[in-house]
Fold:
Amino acid sequence: MKASIKYVVEDMDRHGNVRIYFRRAGQLKVRLPTPVGSSAFWEAYRKAMTGEAPKKAQQQDSRPQQNTMRWLVVGYYGSAEFKRLDDRTKRVRRLVLDAFSKKHGDKPYKMMEPRHVRRLRDEKADRPEAANSLVKYLRQVFAFGVNNDCCD
Structure:
């Protein structure tokens, strides 16, 4: 550490990035915000010195709210149709549908109309294969919903 502040050490991660930590015997190692000397740094340092545990990031409820797009997609992931797919296909499909769910997952699936799907497709006009894949995967998700009496 360039400036010797008691219990503050520099560690280098596996990518070569320097991380600043508070380390004192009998306490957990606490990562401190950078730059050293900033108000956020001193606030975190003060809390570490007094023994306050750092707040953990709140974890989102992993169960999606019922009747949302995310709920329908998660149901599709548990379906026999999805489980029959090759691992590589499942991975690609999850990437596309998870990205969709991140943006639109909290919306009610019953409100989804063909014009909305066309708009999503048109947003990806510069990437036609991605646009076509999204439409194809959404079609399969809704087919799952219809076959399992989730959708009308």
